[in-house]
Amino acid sequence: MSHTITPAGYEFSPDASRLDADRVHELLTTHASWAAGRPRAVQDAAVAGSRNYGIYETAGSAQVAYARVVTDLATFAWLADVVVDPDHRGRGLARALVAGILADLEPFALRRIVLKASPEGRPIYVRSGWEPVDEPEDWMVLYATGGRPGADPAQR
How many other C-beta atoms can be found within 10 angstroms of the C-beta atom of residue 101? Predict the structure, then answer.
């Protein structure tokens, strides 16, 4: 992505073959409150059903950030599981990751991309132009058995 600016020492990649599945699971279950307790099989299924992105250190190629997008590649996308290793936070990696994802999705001219921002992530998204959903009362959710927040993580 030539117009995506990734901080020096890091590389953005939309290449799913580069993902370190163990590292992704560890980042999410250890450093993302919404994914705490998520079983590895559930995470692997989420990866398999999504477009996946990473940021890697250029020296050694260790994965330090991850996000995925669930999309039909025609009208809609949901940005999910954005996480940056705490040892690498404060360097603009979340911004670079989201910018790289948006650049990758740009050719599809999606009508809408949504996300559920964590309290700590909200300021990052607002600075990047994201805004609250118009008419939130029109949006609805159907929680499957065990899918309601606070339910058994093995069901997510």
Answer: 24
Domain span at 17: 10-155
Q: d(Cα 110, Cα 112) in Å, to the nearest integer?
A: 6
The yes-or-no verdict on residue 147 having pLDDT over 80 is no
Helix/strand/coil (H/E/C) assignment for every residue in 11-66: EEECCHHHCCHHHHHHHHHHHCHHHCCCCHHHHHHHHHCCEEEEEEECCCCCEEEE
- pLDDT digits over 130-142, tens only? 999 999 999 998 9
Strand 76-84 vs strand 51-57: parallel, antiparallel, or unpaired? unpaired
**At 94, which helix (H) or strand (E)?**
helix 93-105
Q: Name the domain count of the chain.
A: 1
- Bridge partners (DSSP) of residue 79 are 69, 115
pTM over 0.85: yes
- Which residue carries 């964590």 as its tokens? 118
What is the chain's Cα-based Rg? 15
Whether 1 maps to a domain, the answer reads no
pLDDT band at 120 (very low <50, low <70, confident <90, very high): confident
